[in-house]
Amino acid sequence: ETGVTQSPTHLIKTRGQQVTLRCSSQSGHNTVSWYQQALGQGPQFIFQYYREEENGRGNFPPRFSGLQFPNYSSELNVNALELDDSALYLCASRPDRVSGYTFGSGTRLTVV
Amino acid sequence: GESVGLHLPTLSVQEGDNSIINCAYSNSASDYFIWYKQESGKGPQFIIDIRSNMDKRQGQRVTVLLNKTVKHLSLQIAATQPGDSAVYFCAEKRQTGANNLFFGTGTRLTVIP
User: Fold this and answer.
1) CA A12 to chain centre
2) Residue-wise pLDDT tens digits, A11-67
3) What's the pLDDT tens digit per position in B56-111?
């Protein structure tokens, strides 16, 4: 139990559809980051939110978007799904800039 | 391009032996490094971290060594156990940008009973 909960655990979508993935962080964790992990690869940074504002983004197109809420939950939205979007999506949070990141178990997204 | 990479994709060790997992990084601006363990179906689990002003840090059965001169990081696991079997990632945080982590590809450690 890491204190970071993601839902759903698995999801299958069709190419062109939209998907919303959810993350619930520990109370007090003001920073949340989302990562994409393709099979056999390390996680790749998508974007980061701090107190409901995006404050960093990796090399991902605008169809990847997010939200962070005051109750320490957050969402990752992906529009116009492509087959290459199939991956494990990880949420990570931390209470401040100097602490380590705690990861959730991820959502396994399969696009067919 | 700059990257965090690992020397070996797989490592097999006998139970009870010591394991050493290596990692090379190329960004001299990185100031914080973390080793994560990832088991099948789970997210990365924090093992140990080290800041750039240190060259060694020890935890329970694990030691991380940082050589900034050659931009090399290693994770040593003492008395490796079957439960240590997993994929291990090193990750770096750079001083610029959003303080996000850059991960390598990972090394799969298999412990042979």
Assistant:
1) 16
2) 999 999 999 999 999 888 889 999 999 988 899 999 999 999 998 999 999 999 999
3) 999 999 999 999 999 999 999 999 999 999 999 999 987 766 778 899 889 999 99
Contact: B100, A103; criterion CB under 8 Å: no
Separation between Cα atoms, residue A79 and residue B104, nearest integer Å: 27
Sequence length of chain A is 112
Q: Is the pLDDT of residue B11 over 50?
A: yes
Mutate: best of B92, B100, B108, partner A, most A CBs <10 A: B100
Tell me the average pLDDT across B32-45: 93
Strands A64-68 and A10-13, sheet pairing: unpaired
Task: Find the largest Cα–Cα distance for chain B.
Answer: 44
Q: Are strands B19-25 and B56-58 parallel, antiparallel or unpaired?
A: unpaired
Task: Say yes or no for a CB contact (<8 Å) between B100 and A33.
Answer: yes
Evaluated on CA atoms B62, B63, B66, B67, the torsion sign reads negative
**Selected residues 8-47 of chain B with any CB under 8 Å from a CB in chain A:** 34, 36, 41-46
Determine the Cα–Cα distance for residues B87 and B40; give it in Å rounded to an integer.
8
A78 contacts A22 by C-beta, under 8 angstroms: no
Contact yes or no for B87/A40 (Cβ under 8 A)? no
Q: Give pLDDT, residue A2.
A: 57
Q: How many CB atoms lie within 10 A of CB B94?
A: 18
